[in-house]
Structure formats: structure tokens, C-alpha cells
Hints:
The chain is of the alpha/beta class. The protein is built from 6 helices and 10 strands, in the order ββαβαβααβββαβαββ. The relative contact order is 0.19.
Amino acid sequence: MEVRPTGDGSLSLRHPVHGEGYHPAAGAVGQAERLYLRGSGAQAGPRPRIFELGFGLGVNFAVTLRHARRRGAFLDYRAVEVEPVPLEVLEEVLRPLDAELFARIAPHWGGSLEVATREFRLRLEVVRVQEGFTAGVRVRYVYFDPFSPRANPEVWTPAVYRKMYDLLEAGGTLVTYSVAGHVRRGLAAAGFRVERIPGWGGKRHWLRARRTAQPNGVEEGDAQVGDGPDPEGRAGPPEFPSEAANDGA
């Protein structure tokens, strides 16, 4: 596994089997801040409760925790990951972002874990989300960040979308990098109100979906959310193929 720098100086990794990067070539931290933190609205939550599908290298968690610390907000973070990276790889990527955080996680890494401090609680389950996970209290935000539909199709399914819908509280938000038509249609069918939001780093759009009271919700003004061809629209140099503009962390 070769760790490589991204465009904003933060580090990422290309998965040796999927052939996809864990983050976009433009920047691992850049996408974590723009899509997952701010795109979801988690940067403003007084006590954010977040679920991440695809913990990967911990970048989304580290960035979210950094912002929570700045404003004195306690972060309650739950995540699932089917294939934890080797500890030495996690160290190479996560330690430069937050050495204290890495030191707290490292002794427990490799399986399911729970780490709690006065600033955060992290509960990570090593499990396939489609096979079940500990639901617990509903969350306000979902970071939907698995590998791409091409590489990991079993996660991009109506059953998983419905799990995410049920996990969110009313008005809660899910964000993801994929704007593929089947993803938008599947989220809408699960009950979400779906909208495309501006992307970054060579990707035109990302996706935001809100939990609503009624099924089949599509944002007004985006009535053709599932119609017509709509490629992923990702762009990146060869070491981070287009399918992998952000697929794992």
C-alpha cells in the first residue's frame, strides 16, 4: 500500500484491489471539509452526532473533530469499516493531521473499537453495513463514503439507503460524492429529498439528501434527479483514477 500526497498536501492511499484512491487527487482534507463537514452542516451543530459509512483512513473524522474542538462542541461519531488499513498506513496518514487522536486510536486499531474523551466519542465497528450494525441513537448527519458504485456495488443499494434513512433523525442530512442517476433515484425512493450541490477539485457536483416525513422526496427544481445520462464527473491524475475521486475515507 503506497501512501501518496494529494493536491492540498494531505496524504491518501490507492486501494491495491479496487484500484481507486481513498480520496480525490485535489485533496483529502479539502473534500472532508467541503463535502462532509460543511456540505452536511455538521460544522454548525452544537453537539454533532455523525455516522460514517467507510471510515477508511480517518480523515473525515479528524477534520470534523478539529472543527468541533475549535468551537467547544462535543463530537459523537459512529462509523463502520469493512477493511481496516494496516496500523502503519493509518499512522502515516492520520498522525500528521492529529497526533493526539492517532495515539488514542492506535492501541485499539484492527477491530471494532470505542474511544471516549471529554471532546469526543468514537465508536467504530468492523462490519459490512448491509449485514447489520449497532443502530443506537439516531444521528443528525451521515457521511456516506464507501468505495465507488463500480468497485463496491453491494453498498449502493436501496436496502442500505433505507438503513441510512432510518438512522437519521427528522431533518437529518446525508452527503456523498456520487451523483450517479441510480444513486439519486435510490435515495429518493428511500424517502430522501435529494439535491445536487456544487462539487470541488474537478468534480462538478456532489449529492445532499435530507430525511423527510414522506417517501419519494425530490427537491423542487431538481425534478429530473434520476433522468438522463449523468456521469460521475470526476477528474484526477492517473494515480487517483476518476472512479476514485473519493471512495473510502
